């Protein structure tokens, strides 16, 4: 059963990380959706994310035609999100995916969680 969570992944040149990151997210939570907002990566990050949809159907990919920047990409993800709760992670693993499970549990009793 999926949790009422949208995970936003703003990306730029994260071809090597996007697959392992999504697999790691799925290890800890079963989000309603994983929204990849790719900022016109020349390395094919969006293509890799799109190819993962065959195995992980909750993935949504928004491929920007030009670089919008991190803040705009996160906002795009929030605008697309269809879950009660929204989280975002950097695609370089600087935000550990294992924390999502605990954070999802804790947010049930809070207004915001950082």
Keywords summarizing the entry:
114 residues, 4-stranded parallel sheet, 4 strands, Spore Coat Polysaccharide Biosynthesis Protein SpsA, Chain A, alpha/beta
Question: Care to describe what's here?
Answer:
The structure is a single chain. This protein is α/β, with parallel strands linked by helices and 114 residues long. The protein has a single domain (3-107), classed as Alpha-Beta Complex (Spore Coat Polysaccharide Biosynthesis Protein SpsA, Chain A). Helices cover 37% and strands 23% of the residues. A 4-stranded parallel beta sheet has the order 3-2-1-4, sandwiched between helices. Helix 2 links the parallel strand 2 and strand 3 (59-63). Helix 1 packs parallel to helix 2 (45-52). The longest helix has 14 residues, at 15-28.
- What is the C-alpha radius of gyration, as a whole number of Å? 13 Å
Output the structural class.
alpha/beta
The named CATH superfamily: Spore Coat Polysaccharide Biosynthesis Protein SpsA, Chain A
For the secondary structure, the number of strands is: 4
């Amino acid at each position: 059963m999926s949790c009422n969570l949208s995970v936003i992944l703003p990306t730029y040149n994260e071809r090597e990380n996007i697959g392992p990151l999504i697999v790691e997210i799925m290890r800890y939570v079963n989000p309603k959706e994983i929204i990849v907002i790719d900022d016109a990566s020349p390395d094919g990050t969006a293509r890799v994310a799109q190819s993962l949809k065959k195995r992980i159907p909750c993935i949504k990919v928004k491929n920007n035609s030009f670089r919008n920047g991190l803040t705009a990409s996160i906002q795009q993800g929030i605008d697309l999100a269809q879950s009660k709760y929204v989280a975002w992670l950097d695609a370089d693993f600087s935000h550990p995916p294992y924390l999502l499970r605990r954070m999802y549990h804790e947010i049930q009793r809070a207004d915001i969680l950082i």
